[in-house]
Q: What sequence folds into this?
């Protein structure tokens, strides 16, 4: 709404006074009944919204409109805060898997908070290889109806204490510092302690150990770093080789055959066992006809995409902002004659990669190859 501050204030006052005068005029009985009626309408409306959300997700409309995830769509497009989006999505899951819970939500014996709490529990248990049948889920839900969040927490902790403890907490404690709380098992603790001992000359605390591990992993994994000169103050051999690759990419592709990094080795193998004696151009031509991508080209695709999913909604022109789970894909599929060359390669997040695959090959064919259902 675009109106100046004066108008806004005026309209807020009018709105407020309208509601105030409405509630003030009611008799005690009417106030009692109307409040209850509106709370019921509120529950019904939430269920209507969840039903619409289910259909949006099933049509993958959020992906088509350029959102990288359903959660992101709920927050940015629907203006829910993270907690509300989370509760809506988890309740959507629970009501999809156990439709009987819709009635409990309608009656208020389950709330969005408790429903999402229960769904979280089922999902975490499933990750720990403890799956519940629909009947078992229904039995547990019935037991937890009309209980408070705290009571449910206690009941679920009795069934599986590790599930409740698994929650990670992250919050700001100053402008630039965050506090991360997570539960680790003794095995991991001992490994961290051992690594701290082995690297005690530079790592004094667990924070130092984690930071050096993260730096090392990023310097190995981030393709953008392989193209840039300055990353931090350290100059590792990996960064040096990245710089060389930028200057002499074809030469390095050959040299990397002898590199001791496993991932580099496998990538080179994937390019089709090229002969060392071949010229760079003949390698390039041969690789275009192979599904596999030369390391130097992979890095160029990442740079071209700026390490971000390249999906753009043709209607809103909204580009997916995902920097997670990115994969290099052929724009024209390899199976349909698309070449493995820079101009036919792009970077997509898992969800947009799936969307592209469904649009090319059809849902039925795709579903056979996926472990995770397409509805996610
Ligand atoms: Zn994406």
A:
């Amino acid at each position: 709404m675009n109106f100046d501050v004066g108008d806004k204030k005026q309209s807020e006052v009018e709105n407020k006074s309208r509601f105030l005068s409405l509630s003030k005029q009611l008799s005690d009985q009417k106030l009692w009944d109307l409040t209850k009626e509106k709370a019921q309408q509120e529950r019904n409306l939430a269920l209507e919204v969840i039903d619409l959300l289910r259909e949006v997700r099933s049509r993958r409309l959020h992906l088509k409109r350029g959102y990288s995830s359903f959660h992101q769509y709920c927050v940015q497009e629907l203006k829910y805060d993270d907690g509300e989006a989370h509760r809506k999505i988890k309740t959507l899951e629970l009501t999809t898997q156990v439709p009987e819970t819709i009635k409990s939500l309608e009656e208020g014996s389950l709330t969005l908070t408790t429903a999402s709490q229960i769904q979280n529990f089922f999902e975490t248990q499933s990750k720990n290889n403890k799956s519940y049948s629909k009947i078992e889920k229904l039995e547990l839900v019935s037991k937890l109806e009309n209980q408070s969040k705290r009571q449910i927490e206690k009941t679920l902790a009795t069934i599986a204490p590790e599930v409740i403890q698994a929650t990670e907490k992250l919050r700001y404690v100053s402008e630039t510092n965050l506090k991360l709380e997570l539960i680790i098992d003794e095995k991991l603790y001992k490994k961290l302690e051992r690594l701290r001992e082995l690297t005690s000359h530079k790592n004094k605390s667990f924070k130092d150990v984690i930071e050096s591990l993260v730096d090392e992993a990023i310097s190995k994994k981030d393709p953008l770093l392989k193209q840039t000169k300055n990353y931090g103050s350290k100059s590792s051999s990996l960064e040096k080789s990245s710089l060389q690759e930028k200057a002499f990419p074809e030469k390095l592709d050959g040299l990397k055959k002898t590199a001791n990094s496993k991932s580099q080795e496998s990538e080179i193998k994937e390019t089709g066992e090229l002969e060392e004696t071949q010229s760079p151009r003949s390698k390039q031509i041969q690789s275009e006809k192979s599904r596999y991508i030369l390391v130097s080209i992979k890095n160029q695709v990442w740079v071209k995409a700026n390490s971000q999913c390249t999906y753009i909604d043709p209607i809103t022109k909204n580009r997916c902002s995902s920097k997670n789970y990115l994969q290099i894909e052929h724009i024209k599929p390899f199976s349909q004659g698309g070449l493995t060359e820079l101009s036919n390669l792009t970077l997509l997040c898992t969800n947009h990669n799936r969307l592209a695959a469904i649009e090319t090959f059809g849902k039925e064919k795709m579903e056979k190859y996926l472990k995770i259902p397409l509805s996610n």
In short: Confidence is low (pLDDT under 50) at residues 229-277. The beta strands are 169-172, 178-181, 326-330, 345-349. The chain is about 60% helix and 5% strand. Residues 223-285 form one domain.
